[in-house]
UniProtKB/TrEMBL annotation:
Its EC number is 6.3.3.2. GO terms for molecular function: 5-formyltetrahydrofolate cyclo-ligase activity; ATP binding; metal ion binding. It catalyses: (6S)-5-formyl-5,6,7,8-tetrahydrofolate + ATP = (6R)-5,10-methenyltetrahydrofolate + ADP + phosphate. It holds the Pfam family 5-FTHF_cyc-lig. It comes from Eubacterium pyruvativorans. The lineage of its organism: Bacteria, Bacillati, Bacillota, Clostridia, Eubacteriales. Its cofactor is Mg(2+). Keywords: ATP-binding, Ligase, Magnesium, Metal-binding, Nucleotide-binding. This is 5-formyltetrahydrofolate cyclo-ligase. InterPro entries: FTHF_cligase, FTHF_cligase-like_sf, NagB/RpiA_transferase-like.
């Protein structure tokens, strides 16, 4: 899975711009946007009806997913989080507690502790997907590792991308391996491309 050199350069440029913008966002904006995204996701029928969800564990520069993970756990959903195993490869691991089941992992991102067995991606109903930037029509620019591009090919789950509205832009370049998301969720609301 590799992009053409010109496409790689375009993606790299937009990633640099998006990362700088994300780093400059005020804490108040991050909090209010994260709260709005939480409300939007939990109101979605795909979330309410999902038995097994997969959600990334957010880093400080991303929309805060910790409340979403806790909400799903309190609603007795099976919650899976990613663990990066090798170059471009990740798996879904179920957790029952953020405090007991997560430890610092690759790039210091919290991930499942040793001893937890992975869940098949085919068992997932909903995948909450991060991005560096995204387009309102469901095009996603990841962080460049290809982890989600590869993982999403292995599941038919509903793909819900979450991001700050300020990271939505029309000029997201895509290659043949870049999948579109079923929903794009920001503090501005839920966009359902193609529906």
């Amino acid at each position: 899975m590799s992009d053409h050199p010109q496409l790689k350069e375009m993606k790299k440029k937009i990633r640099t711009e998006a990362k700088a913008l994300a780093a400059s966002l005020a804490p108040e904006y991050r909090r209010s946007a994260s709260d709005a995204v939480f409300r939007a996701v939990t109101a979605m029928p795909e979330y309410r009806e999902a038995e097994t969800i997969f959600c990334f564990v957010s880093m400080p520069s991303e929309v805060d997913t910790h409340p979403l993970i806790r909400d799903a756990l309190t609603k007795n959903k099976r919650v899976c989080v990613p663990k990066c195993l090798s170059l471009g490869h990740m798996e879904a691991y179920p957790i029952t507690s953020m405090e007991k089941d997560l430890e610092p992992g690759t790039w210091n991102i919290p991930e499942p502790r040793e001893g937890i067995l992975p869940v098949s991606p085919e068992e997932l109903d909903l995948v909450i997907v991060p991005c560096c930037a995204a387009a309102p029509d469901g095009r996603r620019l990841g962080f460049g590792g290809g982890f989600y591009d590869r993982f999403l090919l292995r599941t038919d789950a509903f793909r819900a991308l979450i991001c700050y509205g300020r990271l939505l832009r029309e000029d997201i370049p895509t290659g043949e391996y870049d999948l579109r998301m079923d929903a794009v969720i920001s503090e501005q609301g839920v966009l359902r491309p193609g529906i």
